[in-house]
Amino acid sequence: MTLLAMLPAPEPREGSAGACRRSGRKFADAERSCHVMLRSVPQDARFWHLLGLACQRQNRNEEATAALAQSVHWNPRQA
Length: 79
What we know:
Blueprint: H1 17-40, H2 45-57, H3 61-74
Helix pairs in contact: 1-2, 2-3
């Protein structure tokens, strides 16, 4: 399983309130998992990248930008 597989795919009916809540929980779960992993390996650019994506999908763009900047810091070739 790839790291990107940790993040859920967008729900087919994004307008549905139930689908948005389910999707939000999945992204929050992915975010928590990234934080757990980053406590063990804070230099792993892949987890910073996933954290950035999870935050972005939750409309937390400042946190997403900071996490993605850390990802680039640890692996500039990923930019």
